[in-house]
Design brief:
The structure holds 3 protein chains of 3 kinds. By secondary structure, chain A is of the alpha+beta class. Chain A has helices at 28-35, 86-100, 110-118, 177-182, 221-225, 234-242, 293-297, 300-307; strands at 10-15, 18-23, 58-61, 68-69, 79-82, 165-167, 193-195, 202-204, 231-233, 250-256, 265-271, 274-279. Chain A starts with 9 loop residues before the first strand and ends with a helix. Chain B has a 6-stranded mixed sheet. In chain B, a hairpin with a 3-residue loop joins strand 18 (454-459) and strand 19. In chain B, helix 3 (55-68) crosses helix 7 (107-119) and helix 6 crosses helix 7. By secondary structure, chain C is an alpha/beta fold. Chain C has 5 domains: 3-94, no CATH class; 108-190, 3-Layer(aba) Sandwich (Glutaredoxin); 228-437, NADH-ubiquinone oxidoreductase 51kDa subunit (Rossmann fold, 3-Layer(aba) Sandwich), CATH 3.40.50; 447-529, Ubiquitin-like (UB roll), CATH 3.10.20.600; 534-614, NADH-ubiquinone oxidoreductase 51kDa subunit, iron-sulphur binding domain (de novo design (two linked rop proteins)), CATH 1.20.1440.230. Chain C has helices at residues 20-27, 47-53, 57-68, 73-83, 87-94, 116-120, 123-133, 183-190, 228-233, 238-258, 270-279, 300-307, 309-323, 337-352, 383-391, 419-431, 433-437, 470-476, 510-515, 534-548, 554-571, 579-596, 600-604, 607-614; strands spanning 42-43, 108-113, 146-151, 163-167, 176-178, 286-291, 327-332, 357-360, 365-373, 414-418, 447-454, 460-465, 486-491, 497-499, 524-529. In chain C, the strands form 3 sheets. Chain C has a 5-stranded mixed sheet with strand order 8-9-7-6-10, with helices on both faces. In chain C, strands 12-11-15-13-14 form a 5-stranded mixed sheet, with helices on both faces. In chain C, strand 4 (163-167) and strand 5 form a beta hairpin. The relative contact order of chain C is 0.09. The model of chain C is unreliable at 1-6 (pLDDT under 50). Classes of the chains: A alpha+beta, B alpha/beta, C alpha/beta.
C-alpha cells in the first residue's frame, strides 16, 4: 500500500440522469459503479489492462456515434452516459446471446446468470448447437460455410495434459485475461497467446504444443483470472468429476505464503480440513491476485504430512 | 533503474519480479550483476557476468568511476555521509582496467553501469544470497551501500537498497529478536535501559551479553561448549555447508530437541521431537516480508495428529519449567510485542487487516507505515547518525581454485523448489527435473563429459555423484547446482563452511571442485 | 552453444532447429549486424532490445514464407531466437495472416480469387476445375510442388477473374498475379512456367484517346513508373519544392483549405490530422501510408502505386516535412506484388537521389520511408490494426480514443493517410488549397477515383470530379455489358450497400450518397445485371466478413458467423420460422455489430446483406 497522496481532483459525470463525482483518471465504468448502476463485465478485471473485447459493458455516451466500452473509456468532466437505454439493452442482450449460443457458460459466475436473466437472453434463437469439433490449427481465411441449420459453437475436447491444469476451451469466451496474466500484466512468460483469426481465434501455445513443453511455468495465474471455468486446477476438476466439490462446505482463509520473503497473500480454500484450491486476493498490492508455482501449488506438503 | 546484484529474483522472488517487469515495461532500465546469465539477467539491458566472489572489486570500480567522472551526488555526500575521503582514497586504485582483470567484466560495461546508476533519477539496488552467502558477506553489502551513498540513491521513494529476503519471515525473525544481540524491535540487548524495559515486562533477568549466531553455535559444539540444542523450524543437518562435519557435531550433542512440522534429517538425530503446526496454515500469527510489511497468517487447517501450535508447545514447556504463561492468543502476544517494540506499536490486528499489512516503523495507530527508510538523510541538517562510507577490500573466495580443484561451483535455487526441498518436495511440479550439476557445453566438450553423464564431484570437503546437464547460462569454468534435493545430490557435502565473522553466513556461493568421470559407469557417454 | 546464441529474456524456445535456408532467410531482415554479440561476460539483449526488434517479426515471417513456402517450427524458433519474441506470440501472429502457412505447404500456390467481381467472371467454374484436377483447396499437386487456395478479393476486379501466385523457394520467382486468368495459364504457372505480363490496362481513360483534365491519373501511361527522371520530367517533385518554399505551417494550411477528405472510406478531413500531429508535443512522429487496400471491389490505390509510385513517395515526404516526422511507413497489401516492386524501386531511386534520407533535397530535413508488406488480412486496412501489424503484433484494431494523431504507430503521434488521399496532396500544394477546393462540390472537393467493375462494358479505374452522377459514371464505362438490364449497384465495397437502379441520378459525393443511405466507401461501383445470382453474391460477402473478422470482439466474431448462418438459411429457404423473422433477427445482429463492435469491420459487416434483403435481392419474387 502506498502512502497517502494529494487528493485527486474530482469530475462530474452524469449517469442515467444523476450526476456522480469520480476522480480524474477514472473510467466510465467507475462512474457507473459509483452511481450504483449494475454494469455487466466479462473481460474486464481490475488488475489487468482493459482489452475491451467482450463489449458487454457498453454504454451510450453523448456525442459518440457508437456505444462505448465503459471499462476502458476515460471519464471526463461533463460526460453524459446512459446505461439502460434501448440501444444499450439491445447490445448487452445480443452480446450475451451470441456468447451463450457459442460457449458453455455453465461455470460462469452468478453475476453472468443474473445479467442473462436481466437482459432476457434467449440462447436458442440462433438454432441448435452444431456438433463439436477440433479447433486447433485452423487456418485464417476460407472456411466451409454451414447450411445455417445449426449454430456453430466452440465446443471441443477438454485438454488434460498434466496434473496441474485442465483446459476446457468449450467454455472459453476469448476474454484475453489468461493471455494478459501470462504475459505483460503479470507473469511475462508468454506461454499462451491468441492464435488464428475470427471465429477460429483461440488461446494457444506455439503450434498447440502441450503446456509442459511450452513456456508455461505453472503459476496458475491464467486460472486465477479465468471468468468462465475454462481453465481450472486439476485438483478442482477431479473433485468436480468425482462429485465431491462443494463450495458451500468450503472455508476461505487468507494467510501469507510460506515461501520466499515477498509476502504474497494466499486464500486457502479448505473443504473437510483439506486445501482444495489456492487463490490470491485481487485487492492486495503485493500480488494483485497473482502467485508463483510454489505459492499456488506448494501447499501439498502440509497435507502429505497429515497422511503419513 | 534497477540493479539486481547477485539475485535471481525471476525464480526466487517471482512476484517481486512481476513488479520489476511492470517498471521495465514502462521504461525502467535493468542491470544484472551475476556470474550466471540467469533467467533474471536475461531481461536486463546489460548483464555483467563477473567471476564468483569479485563483487567488491566490481563495486569499488563502479565507485571510482562515479568519482572520477564527477558523477557523485555532492550535496548528499556532504550533508548525509561520513568517511568519503577515506573511501575515495581507498578506491582510487580500483580502475576499470584493474576491475576487468579481477572480475572478468569488460571495463566499458562497468562504466555503463556506473553512469546509468549515477545518472538515474531513481535507482533500486537489490541483492540476494549472491551477495550474502560469502565469507566476506558484510563487506559485500557495505561495498554496495557505498554506491548508494555516493549517488544519493537511497532514502527517497523509488530509490533504495533492498536485500530480497529468501524466506517468508526471515525479516520477522529479526524483528522479533531472534538475533544473538537484539531484543524485539532491534533493541540492543547490551543497552541497560532497553533491557530493563523488557525485564520489567517479563519479570525476569536477561543476560546482558550477546548470544551466539548459528555458525558460532557450531563452533561452540566443536569446542564442546555447547552440548544441548533446541532447534525450531530449521534443518541444519542438510542446510549447513560441509554437511558431513555439521552432522557429526549434531550427533555429538548431549541433548537435541527438534520442533518442526516435519521429521527432518535433523529431527532424526534428536532425542526429543516436538511435532508442530504449520505456522502459515495451521496457526495464527504474523510474518514480516522483505519490504518490512507485517501481515497476519491465519489458521485454515487443523494440524495433523499430535502436532501443536508453537505457542502451545512453548507455553507447555514453560509450565514444565515452573512458569504459567496461561494460554495466550496470538493477538495477545502480538499486543505485548507492540507494547515493547516502538516500531510495531501502531500495528493492531485490526489495522493489519484493514490495510493489508503495514510496513514498519509504525509508531502509533495514526501512522500509515513507512514505504521507505532513511528519509532522514535528506533532511537538512540530516537527522540522526550520518551514513558512513566503509572502506572494503576485495578478497577472493576462501575456497581457492587450484590445479587440484580448478572449477568453480556456485549454488542457488530453482523456480519450483525451495531450500532443502522439505516443503516444495510435496508437490509434483511438471517443471522439476532430477538434480544436476550444470555446466556449459564448451566445458563438457573440453572435459569429455556428455550431457546427462554421471560424474563424481570432489571438493576439499567431500565427494558426491551427480548428473551433468549442459545449460546456456554458464561460461567455461563455472558450474552450478542447488541444494533442493539432498537425497539425490547432497550438495552441501561440497560447499565451504568458511563464514563471515559478522553475519555468520557460510560461503555457499563459492566452492572449488574437480569433476571426475565415473569409470565403467553404465550408460555414461563421452 | 556459442555465447551469442544463448537464451534471451527467459524464453523457452522450441527444441527444433531451423534449416540453413530458414536461417538465411531470417538473417535477411537484419540489414546490418545490429545485434551486439553477447559474450561470456556481457549481454545486452533484454526486454529493451526485444522491444526494439519486435517490428521485424512480420518481415521475418515473410522472408521465411518466401524462402521455403511455410513457417516450420524450426523457422519460427529461429525467428524467436533472433528477434527475442516468445514463440506463442510469434505463432499467434503467423497464424493471423492468410498468406502465411504454419503447416507444410507446397511452394507454388495459386490463390484463386472467388470474390464478387471474379465470381461474376466465372471464378467458381475455375475453382471447380481445380477441385477436380488437384483436389480441395490446399491439396498438393501430384508432384507436391504446387497447390491452390481460394482467395478473397485480390483488387484486380477490372480484369477479373484474377489469381495471385505465391512462389516460394526460388530466388528468381517473385509473387505475381494474372488477370484475367484462365485455368490453363494458372496450371502452367503452377507447373513452373513464368507468369505472363498483363495484356490489358486498368485505366480506360488513358488508353486510346486520352481523356483531358485527368489529375490523379495525369502521369498514368505518360511517365515510366520505374524511372525517377521520367517522373521528374513530368513535373514530379515540383510539389515538394513548393512545400519547402511555403514552409510546413503553410503546407498544412493549404491542405486544410482544400477540404481534402480521406479517400479510404472514413472521409476524415486530412488537414485536421496533419495539424494535430504537427502540434503534438511528443516525438518522434510518424507518417503512415495506408496502402493495405483490401475492400472487395477496390483497386484504385493499386493502380496509383503501380503506375505512379513516385507520387506516393513525394506526397509522403511532403507530409513528413509538414508535421516534422522523420520516418514514414508504407504498408502495402501483401497481395500486391507489382505495386510493392514499383514502390520499392521508387524509394530506392529517391534515396539514391537525395530525395529521401538525412538531407532531403539538400534542404536540411530528414525523411525516409520503410515499406512493409501485409500478409493477407483485410482488417489491417483499419488504421490501428495496421499499426499493430507493423509493430509485430496481431492485426487487431485498438480501441479509440486515443486516436492515431495522439498515440499511433509505436504509441507516437501519427498521420495515417490512404494512398489516393496522399496523391491529392501534390496538386493541393502546387495549385493551392483554394483552387483544389474549386473542383468537385462544396463539401466533396477535388476529383475521385472510382473502381468500376462487374457487368459493365469497360470496367476499370475512372477519375471524375465529385458530383458526377452514378448514371454518368456508368455511361463512361460503356453501360451495362451486352445490353442487359441493370439489377443493382454495390456502392462502396463489401462494407457498402446495394443501391437500386432508381438511384442512378445520385451525385457521387460524400453527402449525395449519404442522402440515400449509402456511402462512397473506397470508391467501389460494382455493377450487377439481371443475370447475377444475388444470393450467391451476398453469401460471398457474408463469408468474407466472417473470414476477415479479427476475432477480438464478440459482436463481430460471433455476429458475422450468425449473420452468415442466417443468410444461408434464407438462401436455402430454411428460414426459421419465417423470412420476415429472419429479417428481424438480421436487423438485431446488424444493430449490435454496428453499435458495439470495436472497429469499422464490425460496424459495416451487415450493411450489404441488410440492404440486399431490404431490396428483395435476396428472397423476393423469383427466389421463393
Amino acid at each position: 500500500m502506498s502512502s497517502q497522496t494529494a487528493a485527486t481532483p474530482m469530475i462530474d459525470v452524469t449517469v442515467d440522469g444523476e450526476v456522480v463525482q469520480v476522480p480524474e483518471g477514472a473510467t466510465l465504468l467507475d462512474a457507473c459503479r459509483t452511481k450504483g448502476a449494475d454494469t455487466p463485465t466479462l473481460c474486464y478485471l481490475e488488475t489487468l489492462t482493459p482489452v475491451n473485447v467482450c463489449r458487454v459493458c457498453v454504454v451510450e455516451l453523448e456525442g459518440s456515434r457508437t456505444l462505448v466500452p465503459s471499462c476502458s473509456r476515460a471519464a471526463y468532466h461533463g460526460a453524459v452516459v446512459e446505461t439502460d437505454s434501448p440501444r444499450v439493452r439491445h447490445s448487452r442482450k445480443l452480446v450475451l446471446e451470441l456468447l451463450a449460443s457459442t460457449v458453455d457458460l455453465s461455470r460462469a459466475s452468478g453475476d453472468v446468470k443474473r445479467w442473462m436473466d436481466r437482459y432476457d437472453v434467449d440462447t436458442a434463437r440462433f438454432g441448435p448447437a452444431a456438433a463439436p469439433g477440433e479447433r486447433d490449427g485452423r487456418d485464417p481465411g476460407h472456411h466451409h460455410a454451414s447450411d445455417g441449420a445449426t449454430a456453430e459453437t466452440v465446443a471441443q475436447p477438454v485438454k488434460i495434459h498434466d496434473e496441474m491444469y485442465v483446459r476446457d476451451y468449450s467454455k472459453c469466451i476469448l476474454c484475453y485475461r489468461c493471455v494478459e496474466a501470462c504475459g505483460e500484466d503479470a507473469q511475462n512468460s508468454f506461454a499462451i497467446a491468441v492464435a488464428g483469426r475470427g471465429f477460429d481465434a483461440r488461446i494457444s501455445t506455439e503450434f498447440d504444443r502441450k503446456l509442459d513443453q511450452s513456456a508455461c511455468v505453472y503459476c496458475g495465474n491464467c486460472i486465477g483470472v479465468c471468468p468462465t471455468g475454462a481453465l481450472v486446477f486439476k485438483s478442482e476438476y477431479d473433485h468436480r468429476e468425482a462429485g465431491t466439490w462443494d463450495e458451500a462446505k468450503q472455508n476461505v482463509t487468507r494467510t501469507v505464503c510460506p515461501y520466499c520473503g515477498v509476502g504474497c497473500n494466499l486464500e486457502l480454500h479448505v473443504q473437510a480440513n483439506e486445501i482444495v484450491k489456492v487463490t490470491s486476493p485481487m485487492d492486495h498490492s503485493v500480488t494483485q491476485g497473482h502467485l508463483c508455482i510454489k505459492g499456488r501449488f506448494g501447499w501439498q506438503f502440509v497435507q502429505n504430512r497429515g497422511s503419513e | 533503474m534497477v540493479i539486481l546484484w547477485g539475485s535471481n529474483a525471476r525464480e526466487t522472488h517471482p512476484i517481486f519480479f512481476h513488479h520489476l517487469l511492470k517498471a521495465l515495461h514502462s521504461g525502467a532500465r535493468l542491470y544484472a550483476v551475476d556470474p550466471r546469465r540467469t533467467s533474471s539477467a536475461q531481461w536486463a539491458d546489460v548483464w555483467l557476468g563477473l567471476d564468483v566472489g569479485t563483487d567488491i572489486a566490481l563495486a569499488n570500480a563502479v565507485g571510482r568511476e562515479i568519482i572520477a567522472q564527477g558523477l557523485v551526488n555532492q550535496e548528499f555526500v556532504e550533508h548525509a555521509t561520513t568517511g568519503f575521503e577515506d573511501y575515495r582514497a581507498a578506491v582510487e586504485p580500483c580502475t576499470l582496467e584493474q576491475a576487468e582483470r579481477i572480475t572478468g567484466v569488460p571495463g566499458d560495461a562497468i562504466r555503463a553501469l556506473a553512469h546509468a546508476y549515477a545518472g538515474a533519477k531513481n535507482a533500486q539496488l537489490c541483492w540476494t544470497l549472491g551477495i550474502t552467502e560469502h565469507h566476506n558477506a558484510v563487506d559485500n553489502v557495505l561495498a554496495l551501500i557505498n554506491l548508494a551513498l555516493l549517488t544519493g540513491q537511497v532514502g527517497r521513494p523509488g530509490s533504495g537498497i533492498n536485500p530480497l529476503r529468501g524466506q517468508n519471515n526471515v525479516q520477522g525473525g529479526g524483528d522479533m529478536g531472534a538475533l544473538p544481540n537484539k531484543l524485539p524491535g532491534f533493541q540492543d540487548v547490551q543497552d541497560d535501559e532497553l533491557r530493563a524495559k523488557f525485564e520489567r515486562a517479563w519479570d525476569c533477568t536477561i543476560p546482558p551479553k550477546n548470544g551466539w549466531h548459528l555458525t558460532q553455535m557450531f563452533e561452540a559444539m566443536e569446542r564442546r561448549d555447547l552440548r544441548g540444542l533446541y532447534v525450531i523450524g530449521e534443518n541444519p543437518a542438510q542446510s549447513e555447508a560441509d554437511a558431513d562435519h555439521a552432522n557429526a557435531l549434531l550427533r555429538g550433542l548431549d541433548h537435541l530437541v527438534v520442533q518442526d512440522i516435519f521429521l527432518t534429517k535433523t529431527a532424526e538425530f534428536a532425542d526429543v521431537v516436538l511435532p508442530a503446526a504449520a505456522g502459515w496454515a495451521e496457526a495464527e500469527g504474523t510474518v514480516t516480508s522483505s519490504e518490512r510489511r507485517v501481515q497476519r497468517v491465519r489458521k485454515a487447517l487443523d494440524p495433523p495428529g499430535e502436532a501443536r501450535d508453537d505457542v502451545d508447545i512453548l507455553c507447555e514447556l514453560a509450565k514444565r519449567f515452573g512458569h504459567d504463561w496461561g494460554q495466550p492468543t496470538a493477538e495477545e502476544i502480538w499486543d505485548e510485542l507492540r507494547s515493547l517494540s516502538p516500531m510495531h506499536a501502531g500495528m493492531s490486528y485490526a489495522r493489519l487487516d484493514a490495510l493489508g499489512g503495514i510496513q514498519w516503523p509504525c509508531p502509533d495507530e495514526d501512522h500509515p507505515g513507512s514505504t521507505y527508510l532513511h528519509g532522514r538523510l535528506w533532511k537538512r541538517p540530516a537527522e540522526g547518525r550520518l551514513a558512513p562510507f566503509s572502506v572494503v577490500e576485495d578478497v577472493p573466495p576462501a575456497d581457492e581454485l587450484t590445479d587440484e580443484y580448478p572449477v568453480r561451483l556456485t549454488s542457488g535455487r530453482r523456480l519450483d523448489s525451495y531450500n532443502t526441498g522439505v516443503q516444495s518436495g510435496g508437490f509434483a511440479s511438471p517443471l522439476r527435473r532430477p538434480e544436476t550439476l550444470d555446466i556449459c557445453e564448451a566445458d563438457g566438450q573440453r572435459w569429455g563429459i556428455a550431457d546427462g553423464e554421471r560424474v563424481r564431484v570432489h571438493s576439499r570437503r567431500g565427494a558426491i555423484e551427480m548428473t551433468v546437464r549442459y545449460v546456456d547460462e554458464l561460461r567455461p569454468g563455472l558450474t552450478f547446482t542447488t541444494f533442493h534435493f539432498p537425497d539425490e545430490a547432497e550438495t552441501n557435502k561440497l560447499t565451504n563452511p568458511a563464514w563471515d565473522r559478522r553475519s555468520g553466513t557460510a560461503e555457499f556461493k563459492a566452492a572449488a571442485i574437480r569433476i571426475e568421470k565415473l569409470e565403467a559407469a553404465v550408460g555414461a557417454g563421452g | 552453444m556459442p555465447a551469442d546464441e544463448r537464451a534471451r529474456m527467459d524464453l523457452k524456445l522450441l527444441p527444433v532447429e531451423a534449416s540453413a535456408d530458414e536461417r538465411a532467410a531470417v538473417a535477411t531482415v537484419f540489414e546490418s549486424p545490429s545485434e551486439v554479440p553477447n559474450t561470456d561476460r556481457v549481454a545486452r539483449e533484454g526486454l529493451t532490445e526485444a522491444k526494439a526488434r519486435r517490428h521485424l517479426l512480420l518481415p521475418a515471417l515473410h522472408a521465411v514464407q518466401k524462402a521455403v513456402g511455410w513457417i516450420s517450427q524450426g523457422a519460427l524458433n529461429e525467428i524467436c531466437r533472433r528477434l527475442i519474441v516468445p514463440p506463442a506470440e510469434a505463432y499467434g501472429v503467423a497464424s493471423f495472416y492468410a498468406m502465411f502457412s504454419t503447416t507444410a505447404r507446397a511452394p507454388r500456390v495459386a490463390h484463386v480469387c472467388d470474390d464478387i467481381a471474379c465470381k461474376l467472371a466465372g471464378a467458381d467454374a475455375m475453382c471447380a476445375t481445380f477441385e477436380r484436377t488437384i483436389g480441395p483447396p490446399g491439396t498438393p499437386s501430384a508432384d507436391g510442388r504446387a497447390t491452390w487456395l481460394r482467395s478473397p478479393c485480390l483488387g484486380l476486379c477490372e480484369r477479373a477473374p484474377a489469381v495471385l501466385f505465391q512462389l516460394a523457394g526460388s530466388k528468381n520467382a517473385d509473387d505475381d498475379t494474372i488477370a484475367p486468368a484462365t485455368v490453363d495459364e494458372i496450371e502452367q504457372v503452377l507447373n513452373g512456367a513464368t507468369v505472363p505480363a498483363p495484356a490489358v490496362g486498368s485505366t480506360p481513360q488513358t488508353s486510346g484517346t486520352r481523356e483531358p483534365g485527368l489529375r490523379l491519373l495525369r502521369r498514368v501511361g505518360v511517365a515510366d513508373p520505374t524511372s525517377l527522371s521520367a517522373y521528374r520530367a513530368a513535373g514530379g517533385y515540383d510539389a515538394l519544392g513548393r512545400a519547402i518554399e511555403i514552409g510546413p505551417a503553410q503546407a498544412i494550411t493549404e491542405v486544410s483549405v482544400s477540404k481534402l477528405q480521406g479517400r479510404g472510406g472514413a472521409a476524415f478531413p486530412t488537414g485536421r490530422k496533419w495539424d494535430a500531429v504537427a502540434k503534438a508535443a511528443e516525438t518522434p512522429r510518424y507518417i503512415v501510408c495506408n496502402a493495405d487496400e483490401s475492400e472487395p471491389g477496390t483497386f484504385k490505390d493499386r493502380v496509383l502505386m503501380e503506375e505512379d509510385p513516385f507520387a506516393i513517395v513525394e506526397s509522403m515526404t511532403i507530409a513528413g516535412f509538414a508535421v516534422s516526422a522523420e520516418r514514414g511507413y508504407l504498408y502495402v497489401r501483401g497481395e500486391y506484388p507489382l505495386a510493392t516492386a514499383r514502390l520499392e524501386g521508387a524509394i530506392r531511386q529517391c534515396r539514391a537521389d537525395g530525395l529521401l534520407g538525412a538531407d532531403v533535397m539538400g534542404k536540411g530535413f530528414v525523411f525516409d520511408i520503410e515499406l512493409r508488406r501485409g500478409a493477407g488480412a483485410y482488417i489491417c486496412g483499419e488504421e490501428t490494426a495496421l499499426f499493430n501489424s507493423i509493430e509485430g503484433f496481431r492485426g487487431e484494431p485498438r480501441n479509440k480514443p486515443p486516436f492515431p494523431v495522439e498515440k499511433g504507430l509505436f504509441g507516437r503521434p501519427t498521420v495515417i493517410n490512404n494512398v489516393e488521399t496522399l496523391a491529392n496532396v501534390l496538386d493541393i500544394v502546387l495549385e493551392g488549397g483554394a483552387a483544389f477546393a474549386g473542383v468537385g462540390t462544396d463539401q466533396s472537393t477535388g476529383s475521385k477515383l472510382f473502381c468500376v467493375s462487374g457487368a459493365v462494358e469497360r470496367p476499370g479505374l475512372y477519375e471524375v470530379p465529385f458530383g458526377t452522377t452514378l448514371a454518368a459514371l456508368l455511361e463512361r464505362a460503356g453501360g451495362v455489358a451486352e445490353g442487359r438490364r441493370l439489377a443493382t449497384v454495390l456502392l462502396g465495397g463489401a462494407a457498402g450497400t446495394f443501391v437500386s437502379p432508381a438511384h442512378l441520378d445520385t451525385p457521387l459525393t460524400f453527402e449525395g450518397t449519404r442522402a440515400i443511405g449509402a456511402s462512397l466507401g473506397s470508391g467501389v461501383v460494382m455493377v450487377f445485371d439481371e443475370a447475377a445470382d444475388m444470393r450467391d453474391i451476398v453469401l460471398r460477402i457474408a463469408a468474407f466478413f466472417r473470414d476477415e473478422s479479427c476475432g477480438q470482439c464478440v459482436p463481430c466474431r460471433v455476429g458475422t458467423v450468425r449473420q452468415e448462418e442466417l443468410l444461408q438459411r434464407l438462401a436455402r429457404d430454411g428460414a426459421r420460422p419465417s423470412p420476415a423473422a429472419e429479417a428481424d433477427l438480421l436487423d438485431e445482429l446488424a444493430r449490435v455489430m454496428r453499435d458495439a463492435s470495436i472497429c469499422g469491420l464490425g460496424h459495416t459487416a451487415a450493411n450489404a446483406p441488410q440492404s440486399a434483403v431490404t431490396m428483395g435481392l435476396f428472397g423476393g419474387t423469383g427466389h421463393e
